[in-house]
Specification:
single chain; 78 residues; mainly alpha; Single alpha-helices involved in coiled-coils or other helix-helix interfaces; 63% helix; 0% strand; transmembrane helix; transmembrane; translocation
Length: 78
């Protein structure tokens, strides 16, 4: 049985393109690439290596509409 030849893979590729269409496959590829890039960026941030990207702007992690309840309660107590 062994591994598939190039012709087997080309036939499988043609069948997949006929079933899903090229646009959907392109979208899946872009989504997968974005997920991998986000994972790599997250791992870089988790390791604490900001020196790897000194030109990168600081990311705003908090949403501007988020309300910090603890800070609001502390300000009321004072």
């Amino acid at each position: 049985m062994g591994s598939f030849s190039i012709w087997h893979w080309l036939i499988v590729l043609v069948i997949v393109m006929l079933v899903f269409g090229t646009k959907k496959l392109r979208n899946i590829g872009q989504d997968l690439g974005g997920a991998v890039k986000g994972f790599k960026d997250g791992m870089k941030d988790a390791n604490g290596n900001p020196a790897d990207a000194p030109d990168a702007p600081a990311k705003e992690l908090r949403d501007t509409t988020t309300i910090d309840v603890e800070a609001k309660e502390k300000s009321r107590q004072q």
